[in-house]
Amino acid sequence: MEFIKAVSRMFVASPERQVEADADTLIVQQVRAGNVAAFDQLVLKYRERIYAIIYNLTSNREDASDLTQDAFIKAFQSINSFGGQSSFFTWLYRIAVNGARTHLRKNRLRTFFSIEQASEEEKKPEWLNTLAVEAGAEKEVFARDLRQRLNESFQKLSIKHRTVITLFEIDGLSHAEIAEVMECTEGTVRSRLHYAKLQLQADLQDLLKR
Amino acid sequence: MGSAPHTPPPRPTLEELLRFKRAERPAPEFWAEFDRGLRQKQLAALVKRPQGWARMRPEFVRSLRWIAPATAAAAVALVVVQIPLSTASRSGSVEVASIPAATTPVVAMPAIETRAQPFVAAATPLSAMPETSVASLAGRAEHASAAVATEQPSERFLPWSTVSVATVNSGNSATVDTVAVAPAMRETRQPRSSWTSRFSEMAQAISAEQSTDRVLQLASYDLSAVPETIPVVARAATAPATYAASNRSERAIRDRDFRDMESRMGSSSRSSLAIKF
Fold first, then answer.
1. Contact between A99 and A58 (Cβ < 8 Å)
2. b/e for B19-58, b at 16 or more Cβ within 10 A?
């Protein structure tokens, strides 16, 4: 069974991912051998991606920070139970996503947005000017409002739909990788993605290209 | 002069909006704070010894590897053993074991009229029963004394724990054979509906084995509040298999009738049901 999983992973994962996975496995072995500092390499490598996922799931940067730290601590504590059936990054994503989903379920009624800054290169899309002019607002103010609006739309999605669209659109995982992280089929991933996009389109109708 | 084609102002697609959202990044100083917090948590996790359940959980999960199959095997073995036992018990419940006759008559049945009368089923206390309420059997005037056995089994889970069969003689006495099915009935608690059907089975079995002119008395000591005996007397008119009694029409006693009798007897502590056949 393990052999089949390993072989199927080889076909699913891209060569770059495979190289990454092999490098991660080496680091994991070092950590297991007692080199605790080696774990920092894994933290440095994945912290931004894990944070981005959790931030887009929670729309709250304080929660995202705590949950990202918790995910790394949990991975560190359970590194001996990592059996290598999946790649380390899939395993780590699963820990992070499950932690975030548990947090969201526990705090279903509490929604508090705290917005991150956008990186410089994404501040100047042409459509942003158009929408800002239409709204009669300054570009910076409108950009902030738009991020708030997008966060609200994300929070209207169910946790599963939000997770799928975050992993696909924000982190750029493939359907197969998302299926592995969420422990469901690729068909389910595609279906959830489709419905999540439909819902977002309906919610952001007034902003989108007609 | 044609006007220039009007180009709509550019608007984003959903993918562009998502890309805009993707660009949300924390400031660089955020990561310094993040690393500091992570380091603290990591140290705390290294120092902190798991407490209570967290400490036991890995061992418990390990032990589940053999506990779960062992429990399953034990459950299967129990079922395999229980099925023949319960079958034997069910078939054994209709076997009537004779035990020495009880010597303590506790209920004197009322005088019975000589005229033939259709069935009577009474749930009234024996002392309050009218003399005409019980039909004669085989054209004889009888005084039936039914004895309620005084033996109380140590475990009693069914309402009818003692069975007496009284052979009706002329005169004021009756030979009472107490037949007990208590050993066969010592079972786990059953729903009431099955009590009545068990009682029905039992009555049929006794009737089939015993001759007529007998009074079957079933005594219950199930509840312990009021020391009262409330018998129900019934008789069968024709075949032994139909014991039923009704003061209106002939019909066989069915489970429903027994349930009815049983409910009418209510919560008396020491109720009994007598069937004359």
1. no
2. ebbbbbbbeeeebeebeeebeebbeeeeeeeeeeeeeeee
Which residues have a Cβ under 8 Å from the Cβ of A186 and sit 6 or more positions away? Answer: A175, A176, A179
Give me the number of domains chain B comprises. 2
Determine contact: A136 vs chain B, CB below 8 A: no
Chain segment B69-80, per-residue pLDDT in tens: 888 888 888 888
CATH code of the domain made up of A1-114:
1.10.1740.10
ipTM here? 0.80
Query: Chain B neighbours among A 149-188 (CB < 8 Å)?
Result: 150-151, 154, 165, 169-170
Provide the token pair at A20: 């990454």
| CA-based nearest distance A169→chain B, Å | 7
Question: A134-150: per-residue pLDDT in tens?
Answer: 888 888 888 888 888 99
Whole-angstrom Cα distance, residue B239 to residue A78?
78
Q: How far is B63 from chain A (nearest CA, A)?
A: 16
B189, B259: one domain: yes
**Contact at CB, A128 and B20, closer than 8 angstroms:** yes
A157-210, CATH topology level = Arc Repressor Mutant, subunit A (1.10.10)
